Every structure is written in C-alpha cells, then in structure tokens.
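Hey, weird one. I pasted the mannuronan 5-epimerase sequence into the form twice and got a warning about non-standard characters only the second time. First submission, copied straight from the form history:
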Amino acid sequence: AGTYIVSGGEEPSDGCLMLKSNVTLSGAGMGETIIKLADGSDTKVTGIVRSAYGEETHDFGMKNLTLDGNRDATTGKVDGWFNGYIPGSDGKDSNVTLDSVEIKDCSGYGFDPHEQTVNMVIKNSVSHGNGLDGFVADYLSDSVFENNVAYDNDRHGFNVVTSTHDFT
C-alpha cells in the first residue's frame, strides 16, 4: 500500500511504467496502492502504465491498484493505461488482464487498449474524472469488459471503436 510518484520518459510511448510479458503489477487494493503522476509533469504520457511499443507482449496486466493522472497539477495529454502493437504491422498483444483497477484524473483516456490486442479482460474496474473516454476498446478481439463503472469522464464512459470484434 502507499502512493508511488512517477514521471514520463522522453517520448510519449515511453509511458511511466512499462510492463513486459509474464508480468502483473499488483497492489493492495483500489485507493490503497496508488501510482500517481508527479506534480508539474508537462509531457505527453501514452500510458502511466503500458506495454512496450513495437513488442509482442503477452500474459501481463495489473490488479488491485489506482492510477492517478493528477490532472489538476499537470499539463500534456496523459492516458492511464495503454497497450497495443504498432498500427498496421504484424504482431499483437495478448492475454491481458486488468482486475480491480481504478483510473482517475487523466487528461486523456482512462483505459486505452489499442491496436491488435487479443484476449483482453478488464473487470471490476472504475474510470472517472478523465478528459476523454473512461474505457476504450480499439481493435480488440476475443475480449471482455465485465462489471466496470465509468462516470464523470469528459467524453464517453465506454467507447467501442475501429475493428473491435468478438467482444462482450
């Protein structure tokens, strides 16, 4: 438990924390373990937590924690969670599980799984106070969003778009 302060890398695709295959980031519970973007951050962050750009990442995720984009004390577009492969390229992320995760106060998206993701499960999670959509499903297949809540996001609570199929 506790609050962990993070900052972004030089490129937006660096994110703050990058998960590789066979890694699950686990906390003590939503609101108990908090990963928070540092005050004064002024860079674009494509995922406070994310998968590696251009790598096929599998069997990874996070559970029992909160991502806080710290929207009132930062500038630059900040997304909470991001994963996906290079758009239009061969490759995919697969077997991704997010369980009991809260994402709040990001200037961009809350949950933003993207390009060529197969078998993703987001369950028992909450997204609120974000500048764009709470939950996005963009080019997901064989994936499930279950028992999630979105509120007070500036655009959509849930946004299912571009080539998503076999999705419940």
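That's the output from the first submission. The warning seems to come from a hidden character in my clipboard, not from the data itself. The mean pLDDT is 96.
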